[in-house]
Structure formats: C-alpha cells, structure tokens
Amino acid sequence: MSLLSKRQPPDTNGCIQQITPENAEWRYVGFAVYQLSRGQRLTLESGDKELCLVLVAGLASVKTRHAEFSGIGKRLSPFERTPPWSVYVPAAESVEVVADSDLELAVCSAPSTGGGLPVRLIAPDDVGVERRGKGRNKRLVHNILPDSQPADSLLVVEVYTDEGDSSSYPSHKHDKHDSADETYLEETYYHRFDPPQGFAMQRVYTDDRSLDECMAPYNQDVVRVPRGYHPVATLAGYNNYYLNVMAGPVRLWKFTWEKDHAWINSADYPRQS
C-alpha cells in the first residue's frame, strides 16, 4: 500500500482527504480535509475520538452542544504565514461548521482517553511560533496543539519550508514502544504549495530498509508515516506548507535522529566553502 494519499474531488460534504485508522492500517491518527463553499454547512460527530478543527484557509462559525464560536478565522491562505484559528472538540460531541467564506478545513482526530476536557477555541495568540534549523535546513513552525497543552492523544503542528530547503530533517523517527528515547507516534503530512502546481520530495524509511518509500506529494496530498524517518525536501520555485497530525499511546513528542545525518545539527553545518 502506498503511503501517499492523493487529493480527491470533493464529495457531497466537500471532503477531499479521508485518512482513518482502518484505511491507514494503524491505530491512532485520523485526518480529513473539507473544501466548503461560503454558506455550506458541515456536521460532525466526535464519537469516541477527540478532534482538532484547523481553519487552514477561510472563515467559519463553529457550534457544539456546549460552546459556540462565531466568525472565527482571518487568513484566506496558509501562505499568509499567520497562525490559524482552531477548535478543540472532546469525545461525545456534535459539531456544526458553517463556512463564512470559502473554507479549507482540516479535521484531526485521535482516540479519546475520556479526560473530560472542554471544547475550547485555539486562537492565533495561543499558538506557539518558532523558527528551527539553519543553513538550507530551516522552517517556520506553528505549534497548534503541542504536548504542553491539554488533549488526550492529539498533537497538531504546521510547518513552512522555503523553496530549496529541507525540513523534518536531519532524519528523525518516533516509532518505538516502551523506549526511554522515543515515543510511538503515527503521523500525517498534509501538503500545500505556493504556487499550487508545485511538489516536494518526501522519503519514509527505516534503518533496515524494510520500509523505504520516496514520494512526490502535490498540492493537498497527504503522506502517511506509520514508522521510520520522514524528511521533506522542497524544490526551487515552490514554498511548502504542511499540517502534521501525530498520536499514539503516550502523548509526548520524543524522537531520535538518524546517526548518519545528525551532524547537520552541529557547528560543522553549514559547511564553509
């Protein structure tokens, strides 16, 4: 099974991506994207999962049984590079989303542990912004739902990588259970490009190469990472955005670097010409 999920034409609900634990053949991460026209309504049931609704682009009003957030959103493109508006939804909730403009909505999901957390709005001011890396290995990071903020399983972050740069690099992995060095986290990458006809290269591989797949995700494609290393390389002329969703049995982002490439973090990089 390919780890690349191609964008599909919108269905009657506007869905263009639908990753479930069943079709991904894993246990934790669910991910969907909806493209809604202004005035269109979407109804969701969280069931036994928690959700994080991310307004990738556009404006919306979101209502649950216990909260209502009217007229949220600001950016009309993720490439405005401002943090998004998001809504955290616990299990056993009904959600109605009304698109107040054309809307690109990501629905991130993972099993709930019954923590009893309330519905909450995650405003741009609640999102941690940081810049990571150096040389040609730089990116801008928006920490939407990091492990320092309350949730049962979900971790959600968005990343910007400029043309010609790499990210999710040096190669790192988080696929071990009961390890002092790593946590087991499944992960999805939802890719966007500016200009939109662009693509990137992403490789997913393990130390023993029992998994070794290289893909070219295009605009609104999703790469699934069940295990192993997963670096991204952009191409000249095309800036890259991706929305990451991670979840596993322990809600902590703990990873190890691939030894061959860890030197990219050292003072030896960038190399002097």
Written account of the structure:
Keywords: Isomerase. The strands form 5 sheets. The protein has a 7-stranded antiparallel β-sheet, with no helix packed on it. The chain contains 1 helix and 23 strands. It has one helix at 21-24, and strands at residues 4-5, 15-19, 30-36, 41-45, 49-57, 60-64, 68-72, 86-89, 94-99, 103-111, 120-122, 128-134, 137-145, 155-161, 166-167, 172-173, 186-194, 200-205, 212-215, 222-225, 232-234, 239-247, 256-257. It is an all-beta fold and 273 residues long.
Strand arrangement within the widest β-sheet reads 1-20-17-22-14-13-12
Rg from alpha-carbon coordinates: 18 Å
- At CATH's second level, what is the architecture? Sandwich
Helix/strand order: EEHEEEEEEEEEEEEEEEEEEEEE
Supply the CATH superfamily name: Jelly Rolls
Distance between the termini: 43 Å
What share of the residues lie within helices? under 10%
Number of helices: 1
Q: Quick one: overall form?
A: globular
Question: pLDDT under 50 segments (min length 5)?
Answer: none
Tell me the β content.
over 45%
Classify the secondary structure makeup into a structural class.
mainly beta
Average pLDDT number: 97
Largest sheet: 7 strands, antiparallel
Keywords: Isomerase
Protein name: 5-deoxyglucuronate isomerase
Organism: Izhakiella capsodis
GO molecular function: glucuronate isomerase activity
